[in-house]
Amino acid sequence: MNATSKLTAQAQVSVPAAMRRKLGIGPGSTIVWELEGDHVVVRRVGLHTSQAIHSILFDDAPKRKTLAELKSGIAKHLRQRHARD
């Protein structure tokens, strides 16, 4: 997939709609620009790493969790976060 953009006088670049859809990005998304030889590679930056998510859900337990425990922890976290008072 190829697309083109122009650099504005303020050094801004518009990301073509097809690329935004493919990358799943929109307003407020963060992208990273990497130089690989003489090519520039643009990648979407994830908001959370799996390690960060794990530490949020299971900060009190240093051992690895099973898939069932991970799903249970996510469900518990979502219930607590979205609970109505």
From TrEMBL:
Record-linked InterPro entries: SpoVT-AbrB_dom, SpoVT-AbrB_sf
Domain (SpoVT-AbrB): residue spans on this chain: 5-50
Keywords assigned by UniProt, alphabetized: DNA-binding
The keyword DNA-binding belongs to this UniProt entry's keyword annotation: yes
- Signal peptide stretch: none
Q: Does the keyword DNA-binding apply?
A: yes
| NCBIfam families hit by this protein | lp_hng_hel_AbrB (TIGR01439)
Protein's name in the database: AbrB/MazE/SpoVT family DNA-binding domain-containing protein
Source organism: Dokdonella ginsengisoli
